[in-house]
Amino acid sequence: MTAMDDECEVIAPDGTPAGLLEAFWSYDRALLGNDTRTLDELFMPGPHTLRGDGLGLLVGHQAIAAFRSARARIATRRVAQLHVQVIADDAALLMARTRDGDATGLQTAKGESTTISTSAITLASRSATSRSISKTRWTERKLSQLLAE
Questions:
Q1: How many domains, the chain?
Q2: pLDDT in tens, 57-114
Q3: What is the C-alpha to C-alpha distance for residues 32 and 29, in angstroms, rounded to an integer?
Q4: Contact 51, 109 (CB under 8 A)
Q5: 62 lies in which domain range?
């Protein structure tokens, strides 16, 4: 199944479990609004929940909550495309392509059903948004470095 959700293409070959997309968009709004209370509610409690990025890996809900409460920079990117893979009756993997102007990034989450109507994040990872590489600028810079040697 492929659908559009408010300017975001959602690709879910096996469909989406009830409540999963609502939980994902709640998570995304909480990230963009730095809503630490909602983020704390959405992340699975306990010592085995994971959150990682290019700077490191946080293990456990308490460490993730501490990181979120100290975060000063609020994301400005938007989700451009969302892939959903159902991996078990009560779990799904979500991978989102993000955009912030010309920059792109990747956000990954594993959601698990904790009740019939709610999902909790047990794993989250994101790549830093990166700007497109200018081959011309890189080539000019590399050439000037080579000429200087």
A1: 1
A2: 999 999 999 988 887 777 788 999 999 999 888 888 899 999 988 888 888 888 877 5
A3: 5
A4: no
A5: 2-148
